[in-house]
Amino acid sequence: MNILIYGTGAVGTFLSTLIYEKNNNCILFSRGDKFELFRNSGITLKTNLKKHKTIYPDLFDTNKIITLSDLPFIPELVIYCVKSYHNDDSINILKNIFQNTKTYILTLQNGFQSTVKLSNSFGDRILTGAAYIDSVLNEKGEVFETGGDPKIVIGSLYNNGKSLMNDFKHRFNTKELNIEISNDIKSVIWRKLMYICALSGIMCLFRQPLANILSDNKGREILLEIITETYNVAIADNAVISKEEINNVFYELDTNRENSISSMYEDLKKSNSIEVDALNTYVSNKANIFHIDTPMNDLISSVLEAYMIYR
Known about the structure:
By secondary structure, this protein is of the alpha/beta class. It has helices at residues 10-20, 32-41, 87-98, 113-122, 162-172, 185-206, 210-213, 217-236, 244-255, 263-269, 280-290, 295-310; strands at residues 2-6, 25-30, 44-46, 58-61, 77-80, 104-107, 126-132, 135-137, 142-145, 151-155, 178-181. Strand 5 (77-80), helix 3 and strand 6 form a beta-alpha-beta unit.
């Protein structure tokens, strides 16, 4: 299978090793310091099951102009692992290269924003996925799995790409990465938003690890409110999610509080750009359309959008 992975953060590099090792054609789009790091040192993955050999896949620097003729093959699938604040530039790069091909794009970005933006350029050749991969990438180019049972759930909002998804699952579903295909990816993404908006939103609002926040009753109330607000918007958007999932999400966060990592909070601590536009701001904007009150998501959105302006 011919695959391009766009984005070399913890998720993109995790996937690149598992795909590359199965003798598939795999190239990566990277840039800046990460491009130089991986070109010189390769990518080394350590999962809970094994330490993999360092790989040296073909890398392309997106800070330079890339044309279709520069690539060793035309990918059947682009796996899109880009942060939301890079969407406009990244989608323009993809558009200039692949708009006139038959390439599909699977976005693993949180929420729906990238699906909508990508479909504006590529129509129904967009697949949407939810990645449940807890991993970290260090300054040496080493990727470490930090959680258990890595999983990707994929589907299409456009009822398209079924053969490609089945082929992808057949090739890459392993003990190190469970791949599921959903006939209702919309509900899957909304359910993940209930989790990630609460986790990232409250950690960025309090500037504290989740364990510290949940040691206080007020913090627990706020976390539950964020989950509930997001659930209400999801239901208004015709997601099929049981109301029991409100408590289930809270329980997951509470149970994993000591080990919870939010990439948005990590970016905030480093004074980097953050993905609030695809998370709490997205929920707030959707809530306005449906005339639903979401005061906690609104507050988080306002505070973090201001951070983006004045950081």
